[in-house]
Amino acid sequence: MLAFMPEPDRRLRPKVETQEEVLPALPWNVVLLDDDDHSYEYVIAMLGTIFHYPVEKSFPMAEEVDATGRVIVFTGAKEEAELHQEQIHSFGRDPLIPRCAGSMTAVIEPLLE
Question: What letter does residue 31 receive in the DSSP assignment?
């Protein structure tokens, strides 16, 4: 014979609050890579078109990518970084350099703090 067991009163149980820590997403860098098939004018125009950077900001970036082989051109959310990478890859060839076959290359990397 089964005995009737009343349901426990849930009001008497201590309420345990669980709080998941939500960490903000890490920002990502868009890194422009150097090559010998693009002019400073191209880099400055591309950065101005895609990022709306003025010449005063774009020119030092063109110098840095030329001198070091890479320059961070954007830091932000991963989705936005991916979009900017695609925009760089689809910007087209440099009309000032006849041997230029296409756009510059960019990679995205997580910003490690």
Answer: E
